[in-house]
Structure formats: C-alpha cells, structure tokens
Amino acid sequence: MNMFESKPVEIRAAPHLKRPQAVDEIMRNVVYALLPVVAFSVWLFGISVLALVLTTTVVAMATERLFSHLSGQGNTLGDWSVVITGILLALTLPPGFPLWMAAVAAFIAVGLGKSLFGGLGFNVMNPALVGRAFVQAAFPVAITTWTPAFAPGRFTEFIPSTLAMPFMKPPPVDEWIDGLGMDGFTGATPLALQKFEQITLDVGDLFLGGVAGSAGETSALIILLGGLYLAYRRMLDWRIPFGVMAGAALVATPLWLMDGQAYPSPLFIWFSGGLMLGAWFMASDMVASPVTAKGALLYGALIGVLTVVIRLFGGLPEGVMYAILLANAASPLIASFTQPKAYGTQRRPKGET
Amino acid sequence: MKLLNPFKREKTFSHGGIHPLEHKSSTADRPIRRLGFAPRLAVPLAQHKGPPARPVVKVGQEVVRGEPIAVADGHLSVSMHAPATGRVAAIELWPSAAGPKESAIVIDVYQAASQEVLFDHPVDVLELSPQAIVEAVKDAGLVGLGGGVFPSHVKLVPPEGRRIETLIVNGCECEPYLTCDHRVMLEQTEALLRGIRIVLRATGAARAVIGIEDNKPDAIAHLRSALRADDAIGVQAVETKYPQGAERMLIESLTGRQVPGGGLPADLGVAVYNVGTLAQMGELLPQGRGLIERVVTVSGPGAEHPGNYLVPIGTPVSFILRQLGATGYVTEVVLGGPMMGMSIASLDVPVTKGVSGVIIYRAKDEEQGRQRVYPCIKCSRCVEACPMHLNPSLLAQLAHKREYERMASDHALDQCFECGCCAYVCPSNIPLTQYFRIAKAINRERPALVS
Q: pTM, whole model, 2 decimals?
C-alpha cells in the first residue's frame, strides 16, 4: 500500500509535452535534401566533385571538432549543422577547384564564419559563404575557372586542377579541355555569357541543369525539389526563398520589359547561377535570418534585389554570395523593425539583436 | 462537416497556437464516476487567487460534510467547506502543488458516516437580487475551476464604469488529456445552463456565448438541443487549437477583439466563466451549498483506469493512485493539463478547487523531457507559436543575460501567461517557458526597478 508514497517523484517544469523534432533532425534533413544536388553534380562533373564535397565536409567537421574542443563545448558534431556547411561550400565552388584550396575554404568557413562567433546559433553570416568569399578573394583565378559538364572519362580521372599541390599554382585546364574534344565550350558560365557576350542560354536548359557553373548551381529543378521537401516539413521558412525570387523578379521584370535585348528575362535570372541554391539553402540559414514572418520576407526580397543589381550593374557576373552576406549583416536591423506587436498592446517592442 | 469541406475553419485567435496530440479518447467517453473518501483529507486555505480563507473550526472539532470550515477574508477571498464528515485533526502546513507547504485544515474522515450534506438553504436563485447572488457565490466558495482559480464572485462585479454585455462560457478544454469539462457539458447540462442564467441575472449581461472546440461535436449538438427558444444563449464552435481555452484567446476568437495589455475582459464588456464553474454554480446555489468536490480527469500514459471522477476537495493524490492504479513505476504526476499543469513533489498534495486533471507518467515515458539542449538556432518556431505574439527567442536571449527588467519594460514579458507553446515547439529543447516564469518571479520580487 505504500508503493506510491515512498518512491521518488520527478519534478519538471511545464509544458510536459514536447513536439518531437530537434535541431539534429532538422539539420540531418537539410543534408538529405542536399544529397540529390550533390549526386547530380557528380553525374555532371565526375569524381572531382565527389572529392571536393568530401574534402570540404571532412575539413569542416574537423575544424568544428577542434574549435568546440578548444572552447570547451564538447563534441558538437552531433547537431549535423557543420555537415551542411561542408556540403554547401563545395556546391558553391567550381568543379575543378583545387582540393587544398577547398580545404582552406572549409577551415575559414567553420573557423572564422562560425566557431569564432560561438558556434551554432551565434554566427552572423552563413559560414559556407564566408569561406567562399575568402577564397574568392584569395584565389581569384581558380574560383572562376570553369570546366564543361559531361566530360568524357569524368568518372575515372580527376580534372587536372583538382589535384594541384598545396601552395602551388594549379595547372591550367585549357589544354585539358581542348583535349576533350568538346566543341563550343567557352569556359564561361551562362551568367558571364549573358553579361559580357550577350548570349542568353535557353531557360529550359538552365532549369534542368547540365550547363557550366559551380558544382551545385546547375539544376534548378533538383534544388527546388529539395527545398520544397524542407518547406513541407517546416524545416525551412518558405518566405525566404519566396522573398528572394519575388525581389529578383521585381527588379528584373521592368528592365526586361523595357529592353529585352540588353536585360535577361526574370526566368533567366531565377534559374541561372547560384540564385536557386542561395535562395533555398543559404539565405534560409535560420541562424542568420530574421525570426519574424515579415522580417523573413523583407530579408529574402533584399537578397533578390541585391543579386539582380549586382548581376546587371556590378562588375561581377554573379551576385548571390555578396547579396546573402549583406542581407545576413542587415538581418539584425531588419529584425529590429519587424518585431511582433504583442497581443493587446499597440506599441511595437523595441528592436533588439 | 470537416470531411466535406477540409478548408472550413471555425473561429479562432489571430496568431500562434499549436496542435499537440489530444490524448482525449481514453477518457472522453467515460461517464463521471464518484471516487470514495480518503481516510484523511487536507483542505488548503489558499486554493484561490487572493488572501487565504480564515478557519472557523478548531482542532479536534467534529465537522459535517458541507459545513463551512473557513470563511472569506476580504473581497478577493472565498469560503471553504468540509468535503467530508469527520474530525479536524490539525490545521497545519501541508505540501502544495506549487512546492512550498501551505496552511491546510486536515480532516480525519469518519468512515462510518453517511456523508450526507446537511447544510442546505434552498432558495430560488433567479429571484435573488444581483447583490445577493454575488454574496451567495462567494459563500459557496466558487472559483475558476478551469485552473485559473480566480474567485467567481469578483468577476460578477465589473470595475466602476464598466458593464458586462456578454458572458463568455469557456467549454474549449484545449489541454491534451483533459475531458472533465467535456463530460460536464454532456452530463451536467441543466446545472450548467442554470449557472449561465444566474450569471446573466447577476451581471445584467444581454447574452451568453458558449465557446467549444470543434473536436467535441457531441457537446456542441447536445447543448444546442438543450437550449430553450427564449434563451439569450448561443453555442459557438471554435477551432481546436491550443491554447484556445485561455481567457484572452477565447475572447479574441469569439469577439475579434483583444483585451488591452494590463486590462481586464470587463474592458471589452465581457466576462469569461469555465463550464465546470458554472455547472457547480447552477448546482450549489439553489441548494445554498458550498463547493466540496469537483470533476477530475485521471489520465496519462501511466493511468491504469483513466476516466473522469468526482473527487472530494482535499483528497491526496496518493489516494487516487491507490484507488485507480498505475501501469508501471510512477515517476511524475502532473496536476492540471500537461501543457500548464505542475509536477508535484509529494504525493500528499491534495486535489484542490483548481485541479482539472491528474496526469500520470511512468519511468518509461521519460523520453518526453530531458533531451539534449542545443543553442537557439533562431528557427522562429516559438515566434510563430506564441499566441500573445511575443518573441520568445529574443526574450530567452535577454533572460540569458539576466536582463529581466528589460524583458518586461521593452518586450511585454508580462503578457506571457506561460501557455508553454514556445517550449513545446522549440527544436533546441530550450525550457523557454521556465525562463519566463523565473524572470517574472524575479521582477515581482523587485517591482520598483521595473518602470
């Protein structure tokens, strides 16, 4: 009869129910959504991309482990977030990017972009893009050296630049490309063709993939499918990619209507370059984006607008990376004037970052 | 109806809310049964918001079931009545759900007594003046039985310059597991409607609306059929969404207006009463009796005989467990619903007027809590879930920095009523609601610092 009186009783704070979806599950699903993008890229560009993804992911994980050990946080690999950073970083790089440079990029991405800020949840900008921006500045030639998709023998041999020795200049790939016997490859991405040579590729080809470009920015369709899966599972805020695409269309459409020769169509803007990958997988990085619904839309739109402005009027063919990094930096500001208005109060709370 | 039109949405509040698993099927169809008397009952003097009642019995004195044993101490206090015939064994400190021990009148129940209620003063309530009704409600010891435990008679008298136009009757029962209000609506319909008419008379309100979540179509249909043609009472289905049954949420769902921050429902001309409270009012007032028992849902993964039970006030939780059994090693017992209820530290804690549920968890149900806590990843789920439209993510950052005053002065912390939605959805398993509970408690300790 005393069985209920003497036993210890647990005390816990309400609520006593918990929705079963933790951070590691969300991050793991983002990785799953990225895997088809990786697979498609490997099919296009061969084992060089596979080596690239493995390199950035392993170095990113090792960097995370090192810094989490140094900062006394214990092992933080279990939250899976660093795996996303590693894969995303690889997908922003040219397929033949030298592996040692990719390793540098991954180290900078996690070390400077994430760990120095305090790790998961504290990074101000998307870590993968921080790493990408660093190598863009450090290795300007390698980061703009494009190789063709569907090169023969891509599953048996590496692109020559991939295996460049550390701190050595990578061998030029021109001769290798000529040796492939692929006519018509100019070494330029669709965006560069459009910007500098006024050659606009077919939007349908862009949507399905199979054009030159960074490892992961070629097939809009596969990125869209992965993104929609995450949005459906509520692991991604649909407002951000929606905002990006709306913002891009907002600037691109009037220009295109005014002069369809000089300016590309909004569809071309959407499906070319890194806009899809950036919108669905990088801009949507929860940590570096505003938490309110209105803020997310504004933040997305800012990225879309900046991307198109850089693409059409800037010195670079592609602007997604800088657009996202700038919007990341502006995110606290956006958050400060999009705070929710509490029930029953007319006053909007003060902004806070 | 839902099947024919999946896009049909009942009325609801404007922002936030969650849809946890309901867990109501194991008790919703079980009629209310009476639980026996524990050998020893403990009636706390403070079962309501407001000053504790003042005892009017002495240790050693015999009391008869229904006899007043403590009287209201001031306008915000209510009376207590003996839940059983027996002898006052002690007036002493007794474990409470909140943690600290609190004064209680301990009664040794006479097992052989007939347990008849002899304290009757039958009256025709609907002939009483509004003032007399207010006094009668106070004497009956009625408080909000939904868990709010605010003295019922206080809400009958709105502040100067305010008038109650509409009585809102809360039959939402949005907490998972709980079905006691559902059963009350089905089984104590007449008493409920009588209670509504009493409040309409006392407040002079023109109409009453019974708000019921649309997961209880039987209760909606049953109450509609029980209404008389001349009743100024309506039944309104509202969307099944936690915390629909919170006072300010239901007011917004039914009227489309928000209670001003720091204000009262009376500011909008409404008063909200729980169906259980009104059913007790309709039952007790005509007989001139006091509140001595209430319907409690006993449920949870560890409950061997889940159901709805009429439990004498003061019954220790250990007695309920012994009578109804558990299916394993009990590690946690929650009084109230799982979203807002409290885990108790001692099974001696008694059922009080505000206890709507006894939820039993076993060792193997532990996976509900104690998961790894990750840093906040700013996923915005808490912001989306907060029915008061606060920013829990930001409030938690401030709590980490111990800037409790700024949480209140700049970010409307005081609007938080601890519904638990933010902590429920948080993928980082951050105990957000507990942060806010602590912050509010600290701010209460030093009110001078909060402007």
A: 0.91
